[in-house]
Amino acid sequence: QKEVEQDPGPLSVPEGAIVSLNCTYSNSAFQYFMWYRQYSRKGPELLMYTYSSGNKEDGRFTAQVDKSSKYISLFIRDSQPSDSATYLCAMSYSSASKIIFGSGTRLSIRP
Amino acid sequence: DGGITQSPKYLFRKEGQNVTLSCEQNLNHDAMYWYRQDPGQGLRLIYYSQIVNDFQKGDIAEGYSVSREKKESFPLTVTSAQKNPTAFYLCASSIVGQVVNTEAFFGQGTRLTVV
């Protein structure tokens, strides 16, 4: 069983829709949770970062962590065609440990 | 501007050859990482280093080697022992030891193709 599971998609939604991206994980020791966005043939860039449980909002993006269910989510409101990319969740045990990535979900926003 | 530079962007290798991918960062980060990305498999960790002259194997280290002689540099050698080296290789760096910041910054990647 992989430590981090993520549905690869592809996920296609119309412009303006709310997008929900999710990851599950198996190890309750994870403390740091991140979402990265990766455009085609580019390196990933950090979108959101959360420590432990709770929600975090940044503009149209909201990250949620539910440690009791070992489940994290990224919501995108008012989705735009420029949001079309692969979204990777990532986790680590501590600030000094390696970062473990999900396989990524490919998202397409239709104009 | 601070950042991570990977070179070359595209690399072609003949079977049986060793090739070295370059990764340089000027962010003053202690930790550096090499990942391999294949379609549908996300990022898989090859090697990582948290301090100069020290590095650890990741999940798929076989057929690869690294060195960390300088804080700024973490080159990856893909050896002839790596049976399926065609992939997109990503280098990343991060701050180590700070409670609130574990984000990793990525380079733009090197696409390696075996011909």
Question: In words, what does this structure look like?
Answer:
The complex is a heterodimer of chains A (111) and B (115). Chain A is mainly beta and 111 residues long. In chain A, 0% of the residues lie in helices and 55% in strands. Chain A contains no helices and 11 strands. In chain A, the strands form 2 sheets. In chain A, strands 2, 4, 5, 9, 10 and 11 form a 6-stranded mixed beta sheet that branches. A 5-stranded antiparallel beta sheet of chain A has the order 1-3-8-7-6, with no helix packed on it. In chain A, β9 and β10 form a beta hairpin. The radius of gyration of chain A is 13 Å and the shape is globular. The termini of chain A are far apart. Chain B is mostly beta strands and 115 residues long. Helix content of chain B is 0%, strand content 51%. Chain B is built from no helices and 11 strands. Chain B has strands at residues 4-7, 10-13, 19-25, 31-38, 42-51, 54-57, 64-66, 76-78, 87-94, 104-106, 110-114. In chain B, the strands form 2 sheets. In chain B, strands 2, 4, 5, 6, 9, 10 and 11 form a 7-stranded mixed beta sheet that branches. Chain B is globular and about 35 Å long. The interface between A and B is medium-sized, with 26 and 33 residues.
Q: Strand share of the residues of chain B?
A: over 45%
Structural class of chain B: mainly beta
| Uncertain spans of chain A | none
Radius of gyration of chain A: 13 Å
